[in-house]
Give the backbone structure.
Amino acid sequence: MANREMKKYSFLLFYFFTLNTAALAEEKLFIEIKTTDGLYLHSEQRLTWNSFNITSDPSYVKSAQSEYLAIKCGGPWGAVKYRLTFVDGPGFKLHMRGNQLILQIIEYNVISSEQAINAMSIHCIDTEPKQTIKSIAEIMINQSNYKEETLELKNGYEVTYQYSISEESILN
């Protein structure tokens, strides 16, 4: 009977230490994107096992924003010019697919209407810039495996990423 109790408690102790050790595991993802224009995007993401799941929304990181000219016609005071803010440049999206972390490199572009707006003198047409988002690359990273890589993408972006896991045991 005592032997049975000992096995039961040793199993519980093993289970407790395994759970706590796994709970203290910290995943880190460092990403650097360089464009041909000299833009840099640096990001360090701290991830946990519960950060993502299959149904969660992806995590986005975007470049700096820029303002673009737009025009609204037919208002009470005639045509009104105003500015809209859009993201322009590199970015990335993180999401899970099974046991893999998916790093999707994204390029944000803006189709500007400033030249057409400035050319309007007599006739006015409501005109706004348009945001476009293009997925350039998708990198699959297996959880629990260290990975470091530098890639040259077709559009000239240079992507460097490092995925690591540090486990801090409560026994230390």
Summary: The radius of gyration is 25 Å. The longest strand covers residues 130-142.
